[in-house]
Write a structure and sequence with these properties.
The chain has 415 residues and is mainly alpha-helical. It folds into 3 domains: 2-60; 74-177, Receptor-associated Protein (Up-down Bundle), CATH 1.20.81.30; 180-415, no CATH class. It is 68% helix and 7% strand. It has helices spanning 25-34, 74-89, 94-101, 108-122, 127-132, 140-151, 155-179, 181-211, 220-224, 230-252, 255-267, 271-292, 297-306, 311-321, 330-334, 342-354, 357-413; strands at 2-9, 15-22, 38-44, 59-60, 63-64. A 3-stranded antiparallel β-sheet has the order 2-1-3. Strand 4 and strand 5 (63-64) form a beta hairpin. The termini are far apart.
């Protein structure tokens, strides 16, 4: 048995400390949870330090020291937000909600995240501020919407909206991933077929032609030389990767160049409309969620505009929003700019006339997200036959070359 020194929160949010005897660190932590405490730090007492090779990893409010809490996936973040929203909406205080989320049965990542947020909350930070300190977990739009809800005293409502928003994102991602399964399998099988031709069939044919003093026909001669040129190919690939990375870093640091590239994205035939509708849905959902959380109109619009990732579109949204304080309606400043489809602008106009702008913006965002999802599914559906034809043609051409070489062996026998 070993003695562990701990610091933990009681159910009343008071920090307490002491020692506990247990066989190992995990058993000590479970015993603390079982006694109604939320451990912040649990370490082996100095008098019982084991050798360095067997010293256990310390647990802290930020996760597992030496291991790192790691990134939280979109699905886990959605579940975390939904459960937190349910607790807060039920009247449970935020600090008590985090103790529940970090209770027995929770995953190590969730325990680390909940304990870290709890520590910041008890230190006096707002929930949005505590989450803003973890950009690898909580995206900017998440923090901005929550901050707006806190400013309007609608934290529970903001968390509920965030849970719904993340659930939709998870649904869209799962549908896209499901649509990509068949093309991925097709591509994998095609690559395996090409590998068999390159590394099995062609090496077996090469000696026949080399003994006759003749080169392999067609592209087979080029492919036969690939195994001997792997070092050069790897070196060229590595150099190309380094040059591309340096060029990307230089371009990404140039604001004007990035804006030009973003503008080019918006003008591409197929990608452009998808980018514009995705950014429009992001803008509309953020603005609508903030307005539902009782955030002032201009603050909501400016925050939503800051969450538009495309620099070119963000500048155009900023220019349009700047005309709202002049007394013009939102649908009027957006009309004719091509940022939002005309049908969606009419819905915004209806929302302004009926005093339901927040709900109408959320509805617009849902419609745009459905359009984007439908377009992506169509593109993925088109990708499958294109891959089938393209890869089938490539494999077929290689097989024809191999068959041509096999048939020409008879001619070599008569020479």
């Amino acid at each position: 048995m070993s003695t562990f020194q701990y610091r933990a929160y009681t159910r009343q949010g008071v920090v307490t400390s002491g020692t506990i005897v247990a066989e190992e660190l995990d058993a000590a932590v479970e015993a603390l949870y079982g006694s109604g405490l939320t451990p912040v730090e649990t370490v082996l007492c100095a008098d019982h330090d084991p050798p360095p090779a067997t010293r256990p990893i310390e647990r802290s409010a930020l996760g597992l020291r030496g291991q790192g809490a790691g990134r939280v996936g979109l699905k886990d973040l959605s579940a975390f937000t939904t459960e937190l929203a349910s607790l807060v909406s039920s009247g449970v205080p935020v600090d008590a909600s985090f103790r529940v989320l970090a209770g027995a049965g929770a995953s190590p990542k969730r325990i680390a995240l909940a304990n870290g947020l709890l520590k910041d909350i008890l230190a006096g930070l707002q929930l949005s501020e505590a989450m803003g300190r973890r950009p690898e977990v909580f995206p900017p739009d998440y923090v901005a919407i929550l901050a707006g809800g806190e400013a309007g005293g609608q934290t529970a409502q903001a968390l509920t909206l965030l849970g719904e928003m993340l659930a939709r994102r998870v649904e869209i991602r799962n549908k896209i991933r499901g649509s990509l399964v068949y093309p991925a399998i097709l591509l994998m099988m095609s690559l395996m077929s090409i590998a068999v031709i390159v590394f099995v069939l062609i090496p077996n044919l090469t000696p026949v032609f080399s003994d006759a003093g003749l080169p392999l026909p067609g592209i087979l001669a080029v492919i036969a030389d690939l195994p001997d040129n792997w070092p050069k190919l790897l070196l060229c690939s590595a150099l190309g990767t380094v040059v591309g990375w340096i060029a990307y870093r230089r371009v990404s640091s140039d604001e004007m160049m990035m804006r030009k590239l973003d503008r080019l994205k918006c003008r591409l035939p197929i990608i452009g409309p998808l980018v514009q509708r995705r950014e429009a849905s992001q803008f509309a959902r953020s603005a609508g969620s903030l307005l539902e959380a009782r955030v002032p109109l201009m603050t909501a619009l400016q925050t939503a505009r800051s969450l538009v990732s495309n620099r070119y579109l963000s500048a155009r949204y900023s220019e349009a929003i700047g005309r709202v304080p002049e007394g013009r309606a939102l649908n009027q400043v957006l009309e004719g700019l091509g940022l939002i489809p005309p049908a969606m602008i009419r819905l915004i106009a209806v929302g302004e006339e009926t005093g339901q702008l927040a709900k109408m913006l959320v509805r617009v965002a849902s419609n745009l997200e459905s359009e984007v999802q439908s377009k992506i599914e169509q593109l993925v559906g088109l990708l499958t036959p294109l891959l089938t034809v393209g890869i089938g043609g490539l494999v077929g051409a290689l097989i024809l070359q191999v068959m041509s070489a096999v048939l020409s062996i008879n001619n070599l026998a008569y020479q």
